[in-house]
Amino acid sequence: MKRLTKLLSTALCALGLCWGAAAQSVTALVGGNIVHVANGEIASDAVLLVEDDRILAMGSRASLAIPEDATRIDMTGRWLIPGLMNMHVHPGLILPGKLAAELARETDAALSLRMAHAVRGMLHAGVTTIRIPGDRRHADLALARSIERGESEGPRIYSSGMPLVITGGHGSEAGVLYADGPDELVKAARQQISLGASWVKILISGGIATQGGGIGEALMTPEEINAVVDAAHRFGAKVAAHSGSPAATSVAVDAGIDSIEHGYTLDRETLRKMKRAGTWLVPTIVVSQPATEEFFERIGSPPWYLQRRASVGKLHWEALRMAIDEGVSIALGTDGLPQEPAQGTNWMVREAEYYVEAGMTPLEALQSATLKTAEMLEASADSGTLEPGKYADIVALKANPLDDIGALRGIDFVMKGGVVYRDDSFRAPR
Known about the structure:
Largest sheet: 8 strands, mixed
Helix content: 25-40%
Radius of gyration: 22 Å
Order of helices and strands: HEEEEEEHHEHEHEHEHEHEHHEEHHHEEE
Number of helices: 13
Strand content: 15-25%
CATH architecture of the largest domain: Alpha-Beta Barrel
Distance between the termini: 15 Å
Structural class: alpha/beta
CATH topology of the largest domain: TIM Barrel
CATH superfamily of the largest domain: Metal-dependent hydrolases
């Protein structure tokens, strides 16, 4: 009876009906090709054993013994990679235009439900870890705790709470006063950290989604930037800076900023400074490129928004190309929902494809969504590669991503923490 119960539970999980249930004692993924993202090597006809939420052992089918009572999942003809990681998503995103009008009176309860639905979609798209660099009304922090407790279904979440906005800056509303000056911004940063944020998000330049203020203009003062970075680091939190400005980015790098988001108009000198300092870049290139035009038209983005987006697209692309050429550390992020459709795939996959088009190898692009992102989060002990002892966050593909990063379009299996949330080729486990 106990064995039947285990088999039924695993079968339901493979059909996406596990609702975050705990993994069985040992699950064996048998016959797949394990992609080692650290060095590009592939272990063919392999076995990967999962115990509870961790990888127990890995090896060839010929050499690794499978426990008799293990639940077996056939991975023949699939390539196994670590769960994908997206470092810039906003589950509660509201953009100007029709979408903003529709959600103008959204309650806290409605926001939480919308965000829970969004992160569930991310997980089923193969994204097992996300970073939320600023969202609405601290619903992100509540959602992260709910997922940790097993009440909700979604990726692991690292979040910065609400972003730190200055009066008149990106993300602000006309006539509304926000945190200004070092003292106010330090207090605002400490507030987010006290609520559970592991990152602090500052908006140091103009942006696409806010009317007025040039995208490449430095709007936050050096004193303000330095104060926030110092305050956050004292509490062990990291700082991410929305920036489209070389001048603002240069100041932030000198201050010890941990990551630069977007980098719409960065120049080679600034990128070289980032490389020397070890500052991360999260490009979100897909948001300004043709792949997402249909999305912005569908949500009713106003003409001024579409014009600002179009005006920065070529500069953003050139900045990404230079960043890759200069060897800046890049962690993948999309800004929009990873699962949002784009040119026959989704934003997550298209972002990685753009990296290859801009100069990365397929392995480097895959690393930007796995190994590198784990490094940026200082989570390499648990995530980013498939190794014994790490979380059993595993995605399966129909083709080898090292031959063509477009293989990510063929995700058909998602496991997070030893639980199968998606298996398109489900066969009853033996």
